[in-house]
Every structure is written in C-alpha cells, then in structure tokens.
Amino acid sequence: MQPKLQDPSLLKLNVGFINDEWVPARSGKTFEVHDPATRFLVGTCPEFTKAETNEAILAARDAFSKFHLQTGRQRSRILRRWYDEVMANADDLAILITWENGKPLNDAKAEIAYAAGFLEWFSEEAARIYGDTIQGSNPTHRMITYKEPIGVCGLITPWNFPAAMITRKVAPALAAGCTVVCKAPGETPFTALALMELACRAGLPPGVLNMITALDNTIEIGHMLTTSPLIDKVSFTGSTNVGKILMKQSSYTLKKLSMELGGNAPFIVFEDADFDAAIAGAIIAKFRSSGQTCVCANRIYVQAGMYERFVKAFTEKVKSFKVGNGFDAATTHGPLVQARAVEKVDSHVRDAVKKGGKITVGGHGLSLGPAFYAPTVIRDMTADMDIAREETFGPVAGIFSFTTEEEVVKLANNTSIFRVAESLKIGMVGVNTGVISDPASPFGGVKESGFGREGSKYGLAEFQVIKTVTFGGMGKTLKI
C-alpha cells in the first residue's frame, strides 16, 4: 500500500519551477525517482539542462533588482508565512521524505520541524541586519558600513536531509535579500518541489526562488551555476571531491563560496564519562539516518578501562534496532538511499575485517532489498583501516581503544573537555551530546570538510557583502 497525501497537489510530477511558472523540460525528458525501500516508482521529474538553468538565472537576476529593495521586515513576513505553510503541511512533507529518502517517518517528521526552524529563525533575523559606525584615524572622517545582499545565489543541495538542507541555504539567502536558483537533489526532488509550492503560497515574488531538477545532467547544471557571470554566490553540500571541482570552476568568476563537505568525525569516551550518556550519545551520533549524515561519528574512541563494557553495551543496543520500511511504525532505521551506497559500506567492513577488526553485530546486506545493510559494530579498529580515514556514510560503527589522553590526541586531534573544544581542528564540537545542529548555531567544517557557515548570524553573513561609506570634512583637525 502506497502512502497518501492529504494534499496531492504537493506531489509535483514532471515539472520544475522557473520564473514563477511550473514548467517541464524543453526536451520532454524525465528521470525516475524510486522508494529505496520498495523500489516502487514515486514519480518522474524533468531532466533540465543548462538551457533551463540559464532561464532560471536570468529570472533570478531580473528579480534581484526589485527584491533587494524590499525592507528586511517585508522579507521577514514572507519567510514567516512560508514557515506557517510548512508547519501546516508537515505530515505530507514527512511522507514525501520517507517515500523518496527512506528514513523512518518519525525521523522525517523531526526533519520537517528542523527545516521549518530555519525559516522561522531567519524570518526573525531578516529585520535585524545592522552595519557599524567607525571612528577613523583621520579625525575629519566618519565611516559607516552597510550589509547588502550579494546577489544571485546558486544553491546545490544533498539528498540526506531533503527539506532541511534546502531551508538552511534558501532562508538566509532570502533574508539577506538575495535571489536563488536551487538545484534539487536528483534522488529526492519531490520534497524540494513541495517546499517550492509552499513558498509560492507564502507570497514569494516571481523569479526570487527557482527550483531546477536533474539527475543525468547534474554535472552540466553544476558547471552552469559555477561559471555563469550572473551568479554571485555558490553554496554546495556534498562530497569533498565534488566540492573541489565546483570550487575550481567558480574560480574563473571569483564567486563567493560556501562548501559543506565530507567529514570523518571522532567520538571520544573517557573512563570518567557517564556511561549511559556515552552509549546514548554514540548511538545518536553514529546511527542517525542510518549513518548518512556528514556529522556522523565515523570513529568511536573509547578509553581502555571502559572499552570492553562499552563494546558489549553498544552492541546490545544496536541489536535492538528494527530495520525496515520507513512507513512501518516499528522501524527505527531505514534503507540507504540506493544500492550503490551499500557497496561502499560493505567494502569498508571487509577492509576492517581483513586488517583485524572483529564484527560484533551486522556486517552484511539484508534480504529486505538491495538498499538495506544491517547496522554494524566492529571492534579492535586500527588507524590503517579505511573507516579510520574515509567517510563511510552508512550504518557502521568502528570502535577504537586508547590508553592515554596523549594517545587519543594523536589519533583524533583532541584533548579533554574545554581543552578538547579549543584544540580541535574541526568546525564543531559536541560535549556530552550527540546532537549539535540548531538553526541558531553555526554549522560547518574546516580543512577538507569545507568552509563557510550555515545557520546562525554567521550563515546570514555568507549571503552578504559589506559596503563602507567614508564621509570627509566632518570637522576640523585639532592641533595639540
């Protein structure tokens, strides 16, 4: 039995949104979207090309000339109405997420609340964009700064949080006064299109937000967004390798960039930690969305005095998981987004076993379907294993043992509590919690995990430029 929407008009088939119109691809080509749990055909979406993408860019450029002149309060009201529309249609949006992404329905509902939070938070920030007054070194000069929208933004979003990753990028762009061309993920486009429909109902002006869909032409569209001289800013969430390509392409027009890329996050448990809290935190940090988040704990380091007890309790907790269709109320963990993802996960498991790791639970695919993989725990991990160096992006927890703080510093670039937080060469730190995402908090990485921040006042700044105005002759120079 397939899911039913209370409002069937939210399922947008064979159309994208360009310049205030729902339009098909000129070529008539479409691509299919399947439920990863059942392989049932959810529907088809237009396979747009660079031609339609250019139309969207031109529409956004034209709309920017008027939209950036709106007051922050006007933009605030639009975002607030969009938030209200999302909350009013939360159940349908959650169904769409589970249908095309596979995550359990309760997780999908939580994502909608999280996604709506960005609309609410940035609606409140839109009316509070301030500059500065600066006392210059020349006593006859006065300087003031304005924060202005950067312009037209090309946003490329991922499939793992198909609602939240759109609102986390689009909301601050609109709050700042920018206009947007958004490339929806080919794996999960229907959630993006439903959000677009709700934005229209909220009264978003024509051309301000355009939604492009494609699967086979994703590279072509990415190239268009990064090379068009009419695009002023590109924000991308995805793999480090793709981020490097987009960054290189953007260099020819010197675009402002935000890159939220792959991660290899450590989770460290010291012997004096609250044991139950450590287990609960590690479970959340590792297995949220079946391990398909960029902040999942890819490496779990446990101090030797607690190691055996931790491995046993952690394994028992994972054994209690119920893997299945996201629409089954008993399901705690759904499938991976596609069968190809299972291959990478399994290769990491095989590599760990070959190098001495011992599987305590899982370690294999499931008969439920090609996109399912059993939640897996591997003990006796070592630094030479692929899991220690590469992002797994799946339901596999590798548990390492360490003896001293100095040892784990070398392994994970950490020390302890505040010393940990201050010495980490990473963008975010969670202390006594496995959940670190919040609309009010800056989200982002360092080094090859990317740069720029999403969420918070810093996320708003990513879509702004600073203009300085200097006034001369404001007074006579004093002689001392």
UniProtKB/TrEMBL annotation:
Keyword field contains Transmembrane: no
Keywords in alphabetical order: Oxidoreductase
Annotated metabolic or biological route of this protein: Amino-acid degradation; 4-aminobutanoate degradation
Pfam families, per the entry: Aldedh
Domain Aldehyde dehydrogenase: residue ranges: 22-469
Domain of life: Eukaryota
Active site: E260
Single GO MF annotation: succinate-semialdehyde dehydrogenase (NAD+) activity
EC number: 1.2.1.16, 1.2.1.24
UniProt cross-references to CDD domains, sorted A to Z: ALDH_F5_SSADH_GabD
This protein's GO CC annotations: cytoplasm
Single biological process term from Gene Ontology: gamma-aminobutyric acid catabolic process
InterPro entries to which the protein is assigned, alphabetical: Ald_DH/histidinol_DH, Ald_DH_C, Ald_DH_CS_CYS, Ald_DH_CS_GLU, Ald_DH_N, Aldehyde_DH_dom, Aldehyde_DH_Superfamily
Family, per entry: Belongs to the aldehyde dehydrogenase family.
The protein's name: Succinate-semialdehyde dehydrogenase, mitochondrial
